[in-house]
Automatic annotation (TrEMBL), chains A, B:
Gene3D superfamilies: 6.10.140.190, Winged helix-like DNA-binding domain superfamily/Winged helix DNA-binding domain. InterPro entries: Tscrpt_reg_PadR_C, Tscrpt_reg_PadR_N, WH-like_DNA-bd_sf, WH_DNA-bd_sf. It comes from Fictibacillus fluitans. Residues 7-78 form the Transcription regulator PadR N-terminal domain. Residues 93-175 form the Transcription regulator PadR C-terminal domain. It comes from the Bacteria. It holds the Pfam family PadR. This is PadR family transcriptional regulator.
Length: 186, 186
DNA sequence: CTGTACATGTAACGCGTTACATGATTGG
DNA sequence: CCAATCATGTAACGCGTTACATGTACAG
């Protein structure tokens, strides 16, 4: 159900095509969400059937026609209701990389360390992108009231990346220490 | 595909019933994964068809019969192949709570603060559970080589909770500050 | 007498992922 | 000439969630 609210939320800022909504997902929601364009198109069709959004086809000369979606009152009401009423459940992770980490006892220590070092690089790269994004959107940490949500979640994303990187360093040290102790561990 | 590997991974430790695998998910994989028992039963049937695991029905007198699954060589090989070969992609979050945070500009500041305070409590509760679990499984931070993966991922889970809690404190302060400045923000 | 744990599932539906399809314009 | 970008989708399949179904034993 949450993709629906994500799309309604984006449409509170501007009317947009499915394509543009997909771009916005990749750009701003990367901090805490992801969605494929196929999901977005599917969801938009459903939401129009339910009367939450409406669409208008815009003819273009040099480009293919596009379909612009606009938020309807019913959609806005549903969004606000969700924002106020839904209960708060602790968030759960679901992470492929950590699943592999949880089985590190099955592979050699060197493999495990190499894995963590590559994972660290990936997250450092991600952090770099987020920092750049924040600098261009909120220079000097300044933000407008209408961007409050984005400001808060982008900080979350950045801290999450830092947490990952720090944990990688910690985990690498742990494995190196158990390696030194050698076979007398266990 | 990942649930398959999670189950194969658990079965490297011991043979188990679907019920027990579900318990183990809730207990140890809570740090980075979740799965419903219905998924687990469905996946086990498929894995048996593929010859990755085998099962044996054990009759019981006072309880219903149970079906014990055991890892087969083919399953173990597939698991190791996955552990070694699959490329490393940066992890992506998907979090309902953050989706709501990203729309905080649509609700009053007091509501937003109340939301964050409840979210903080939830994560403090989660942290407490994880700390208890770690103390009982790894007293004094000691662990056996065969538990390396669990040791590393449970640290990740704990740090993740701490990161959440710290971010909540930060976000609450940000909102309080914009509230003070009042209408001259924007 | 009620709820919880044990133990295993089916059915229905919705979300997530991958592959495929089409076809124009612009930049290197 | 090739790749990328703009723009919109269908189809197939697998994963995730919720509701329902069945029946016993034990603790409070």
């Amino acid at each position: 159900m949450a993709l629906k609210y994500a799309l309604l939320g984006l449409l509170t800022k501007n009317e947009a095509t499915g394509y543009e909504l997909n771009q916005q997902f990749k750009e701003t929601m990367i901090h805490f969400w992801s969605a494929h364009h196929t999901q977005i198109y599917r969801q938009l069709v459903k939401m129009e059937e339910e009367g939450l959004v409406s669409s208008q086809v815009v003819h273009q000369v040099d480009y293919p026609d596009k379909k612009v979606y606009r938020l309807e009152d019913k959609g806005y009401e549903m969004l606000l209701q969700w924002l106020f009423s839904k209960e708060i459940l602790p968030s759960t992770l679901k992470d492929d990389l950590l699943l592999r980490v949880s089985l590190f006892q099955l592979i050699p220590a060197d493999e495990a360390i190499a894995f963590l070092e590559r994972a660290k690089e990936q997250h450092m790269f991600g952090l770099g992108l987020m920092e750049k994004w924040r600098d261009s959107h909120f220079p000097e940490g300044e933000f407008n009231q209408e961007d409050l949500g984005e400001y808060l979640t982008s900080e979350f994303g950045q801290r999450y990346m830092q947490h990952w990187i720090e944990w990688c360093d910690w985990a690498i040290q742990v494995i190196k220490r158990t390696k030194e102790k050698g076979s007398d561990v266990k």
